[in-house]
Design brief:
Layout: E1 7-14, E2 20-26, E3 32-36, H1 46-58, E4 62-68, E5 101-109, E6 112-119, E7 125-127
Antiparallel strand pairs: 1-2, 1-4, 2-3, 5-6, 6-7
This protein binds zinc ion (ZN).
Zinc ion binds at residues 94, 96-97, 99, 119, 121-122, 124.
Amino acid sequence: MDDHIHIQRTWHLTHPDGSTVDIDLWTDGYTVRVEGGDGEDGDRGQRDVDELIAKYLAAGYQRARDYTVNDPEPEPEDTPEPDADEPADRPECCPECGSAIEYQAEHADHGRSGPAWLCLGCRWGEWISR
Ligand SMILES: [Zn+2]
């Protein structure tokens, strides 16, 4: 099992006395974990990484290397998790206004409920019959 799957990028710093600091930025884009050093973690992403690196450089560390471990997680709004049982014939866009279409597994409207396509713009909707 790969326990680095959640790490997006690692910065490796070394001190002349032999100690090392690893700063990991997680794929969520904000969690920062520090191994070594004073172990101070962060939750402000790149901003914390930059501050931590500056702090350890000031303490005599040197940047040895940094490398990408995993690609960052895509922004949720860019690529919504496809619903497992979403029908394949998803409309490209709303026929009314051209906005993105969303799949609703259990849409309820006017006393009816079930799977439906919903427009994120004008709220156009279409029931999906199976
Ligand atoms: Zn629409």
